[in-house]
Amino acid sequence: MAVKDETDRAGRLREQRHSLPDSPGVYVFKDEKGKVLYVGKAKSIRKRVAGHFSKPGTRGAADMVALIVEIEFVVTQTEAEALLAEQNFIKRLRPRFNIRLRDDKSYPYIGISLDEDYPRIYFTRERHRRNRAYFGPFSSAKRVRETLDLLGKVFQYRTCEGREPGRQSGSPCLDYFIKRCQAPCVGYVSKEEYRANVDTIIAFLSGRYRQIERELDEGMKLAAADQEFEVAAQLRNRLKAVRSLLERQRITNEAVGTLDAIAVAAEETDANAQVFQVRDGVLADRQSFYLENAAARDESEVLEEFVLQYYASALSIPPQVIVARDTVRTGVLEEALSERRGSPVEVRPAERGDKRRIFELAERNARLALDQDRLRSERRRTRRIEALDGLQRSLGMPQIPMRIECFDISNLGETHTVASMVVFEGGAPKKADYRRFRIREAAQDDFAAMGEVLSRRMSQFRAQKELSPHEKEFDASFAALPALIVIDGGKGQLSSGLAELQDFRALGTVVISLAKQLEEVFVPGRPAPLLLPHESAPLQLLQRVRDEAHRFAIEHHRTRRDRAMTGSVLDDLPGVGTTRKRLILKHFGTPERFLAASREELEAVPGLPGKVARDIHAHVHKTG
Predict the structure, then answer these.
(1) Which residues pair with 488 in a beta bridge?
(2) Listed residue (9, 22, 78) closest to 50, CA to CA
(3) pLDDT digits (tens, 9 = 90+) for 481-512
(4) Which residues pair with 436 in a beta bridge?
(5) Strand spans (E) along 89-193
(6) What CATH number does the domain located at 256-372 have?
(7) Per CATH, domain 578-623 is 3.40.50.300
(8) How far apart are CA 100 and CA 46, in angstroms?
(9) Fold assignment, 405-563
(10) Which of 118, 274, 319, 544 is buried most, with the most CB atoms less than 10 Å from its CB?
(11) Residue 411 belongs to what H/E stretch?
């Protein structure tokens, strides 16, 4: 049967490949569940897809081809258009075999509140608010804070919160007296002067260092000629600070100008990209990105995908991007980046001189970062194996507990009792297999609640055995057989669980509980608890699993409780959705004032139809 299915799949794929167009565009590989595996772009979709099937190359690429069931495509006018469309697909669909940043952390930015009369310059991780300028992303939060500190010393901007500067006392704060703020709150600087200072900060953050240097020098000389010696001294000090900074960060001469040097190092499924941002010959920032390379693609392909992903979220694109010599499609990259920038972008290798030296520095850093990351990963893997091996010996298990499941109960009062199931595989969290439960019956009895959730876990396991992995209802987490089940609690919780897990135990699953107070491990059939040394790797692994289950349960409990607490009388009103609810609250201010409103007052709410207002009034007074 499996051979017939495989033959049918190959036949369908052959038909789809023959129907692909010989034109530029984007193609999408999907698996049997319709999940996107890979998004690619090509000058000729038909030829590029044929290349995937004729010579997969790496083991990762072969694994991908084995999963393909369906091929979809979108035709574009040019190859550059295909590049941009591909990035939109990758961002939206997050395919498994495309190059991706290893984590989704939000990078830090510097924000400038241009929508305020006296703009603030502040640290932020968001960049979606209108009428605000954002600079970054920066390589670390420390780098942002260092930059803000420097800007405060040199350009003196306000750090007070709120749209208006100042505080209730009406006197300048300490920042003014230590030369960190010009005190706009008490009128020591006009709005125009303050805004001009902010414009200088924007120029500085944009990398226009030479322009700032010239403007400060000219302003100083002009102030001295007008015998405004205090202003001239202030500008002189700023000029000295800027020049001192530029000299410390200068890695080349001014002639190099503004560019990004991007280098990639790849090894098997890991990769690292380094971006050296050079502005007016000054190294403005260095960023390091760890990448997932599931298909084990070569460095040229990794670079191409990374460049487009990076500049899709970057706030600015420089006029020149330096890449490796073996980068194949520099012309297509130039076209795509130029379109995004709105002016020409040159993408090319550097053959000699300072630019070549900068690129080699980025290349060396990429290799070092990848080696260090792989070394750290190997150490973590070794520690996990040692912890699992020690746990096997301590509990007398017949095999290493590769899959560990832990259950915890979270409640507060009589409502919203929930349970969590977290999974560790190979000593590391497997978050895709985490599950949450709402306790249906014995909400106030922790022992009974634990029995209920373990009973449901056991029932799910039996139900999954009746299903095929291809069926929609199949759940891989519930279908898996754990080697070890950890129950958060003491002897009582363990007893509640053992009765419900007989089928698991018959299949070789070991069930234990871990009590918080003295970190005692309770094992069935053993009257005294097992006390593992506090610094031992096996106990630390159990604690990590238990703490993760506790965190996950509390998070679920909080969500349910907050949802219940934020429910309001407006939720069940006829004809009222999110927008109309907002209109009503904005008009009346509080739910109490709304409840006291007459029919005429409801009909006077802007944007609320008269019939809906009358229905609301009837509903409120009917229900009291």
Answers:
(1) 514
(2) 22
(3) 999 999 988 888 888 888 888 889 889 999 99
(4) 420
(5) 100-101, 109-112, 121-124, 133-135
(6) 3.30.420.10
(7) no
(8) 25
(9) Nucleotidyltransferase; domain 5 (3.30.420)
(10) 274
(11) strand 403-412
Asked if 608 contacts 594 with a C-beta cutoff of 8 angstroms, the reply is no
Distance from C-alpha of 398 to C-alpha of 343, rounded to nearest angstrom: 66
Instruction: Output the DSSP codes for 258-318.
Output: SEEEEEEEEETTEEEEEEEEEETTEEEEEEEEEEE-TT---HHHHHHHHHHHHHHH-S---
Distance CA(571)–CA(354), nearest Å, equals 65
Q: What is the mean pLDDT of residues 377-397?
A: 90
Which 3 state secondary structure label does DSSP give 614? helix
Contacting residues for 55 by C-beta, under 8 A, at least 6 apart: none
**Higher-confidence residue: 587 or 35?**
35
Copy the structure tokens of residue 359: 């690129």
Confidence of residue 40 (pLDDT cuts 50, 70, 90): confident
CB 26 within 8 A of CB 76: yes
Rounded (5°) CA angle 67-70-73 = 125
Question: Is the distance from CB of 407 to CB of 488 less than 8 angstroms?
Answer: yes
Tokens describing residue 536? 């031992």
CATH 3.40.1440.10 fits 2-98, yes or no: yes
pLDDT in tens, 200-221: 888 888 877 777 778 888 888 8
How many residues appear in the chain? 624
Give the residue from 63, 574, 134 showing the smallest Cα distance to 297.
63
Which residues lie closer than 8 Å to 618 by C-beta, 6 or more apart? none
pLDDT digits (tens, 9 = 90+) for 118-153: 899 999 888 778 888 888 777 678 888 888 888 888
Distance between CA atoms of residues 615 and 12, nearest Å: 56
Distance from C-alpha of 4 to C-alpha of 211, rounded to nearest angstrom: 71
Per CATH, 256-372 and 578-623 having the same topology is answered no
